[in-house]
Specification:
With 144 residues, this protein is α/β, with parallel strands linked by helices. The protein has two domains: 46 residues, no CATH class; 65 residues, Nucleotidyltransferase, domain 5, CATH 3.30.420.270. Helix content is 31%, strand content 16%. A five-stranded mixed β-sheet has the order 5-4-3-6-7, with helices on one face. A two-stranded antiparallel ribbon has the order 1-2. A hairpin with a 2-residue loop joins strand 4 and strand 5. The longest helix is centred in the first third of the chain and has 23 residues. It starts with a strand and ends in an 11-residue tail after the last strand.
C-alpha cells in the first residue's frame, strides 16, 4: 500500500503532519523474478539452437591461368596482356594466344574516349567473344 492512515477520525492530517509514504517493492520484485525465470529458460535454448549439418568441401588450389585482358591507355594505346597490339589484329591475337577462351576482360583508362572503347567492344563482339569490363570500386561514390 502506498500510504496508511492511523485509526480514528482525527488522523495525522488534522495535526499538520504529512501522510506516511512508503515505496512498495513487492510488484518490482515480482517482475524481476518473472524476468529471471524467462531468462533462465531461454538461455538454455539459445546455447544449443537449431542443429544444421554444414557440408564439407575440399580446399582447391587457386588458378593461376592467365585470362585475355585488353588494356586501353588514356593515349589510345592498345595492349593484350602488356603486349602492344593493333585493333584489327586483336581478335586473331586472342584466338592464337588463348585458344578456346570465350571471355575477354577490357580495362580502359577513365579518360579514354567512349568511342574507342566501343570500337574494341564491336571488334570483340564480331569475333564472338564475351566482353567483361573491369572497374575499380570507389567508396566515395554513393550507391543507389
Amino acid at each position: 500500500m502506498a500510504f496508511s492512515l492511523p485509526s480514528g477520525s482525527a488522523g495525522r492530517r488534522s495535526r499538520g503532519l504529512p501522510a506516511m509514504a512508503e515505496i512498495n517493492v513487492t510488484p518490482f520484485v515480482d517482475v524481476v523474478l518473472v524476468l529471471l525465470i524467462i531468462f533462465m529458460i531461454t538461455a538454455h535454448v539459445m546455447e544449443y539452437g537449431i542443429e544444421v549439418n554444414v557440408p564439407k568441401t575440399k580446399t582447391v588450389a587457386s588458378s593461376v591461368k592467365e585470362h585475355p585482358t585488353v588494356l586501353l591507355s588514356a593515349k589510345g594505346e592498345l595492349y593484350l596482356n602488356q603486349t602492344p597490339v593493333k585493333l584489327v589484329q586483336l581478335a586473331d591475337e586472342i584466338h592464337t594466344r588463348f585458344p578456346g577462351e570465350t571471355d575477354v576482360y577490357v580495362r580502359a583508362d577513365g579518360k579514354t574516349p567512349y568511342e574507342q572503347v566501343m570500337q574494341i567492344a564491336a571488334e570483340l563482339g564480331n569475333a564472338k567473344f564475351a566482353l567483361k569490363l573491369v572497374t575499380e570500386t570507389d567508396s566515395k561514390v554513393p550507391h543507389r
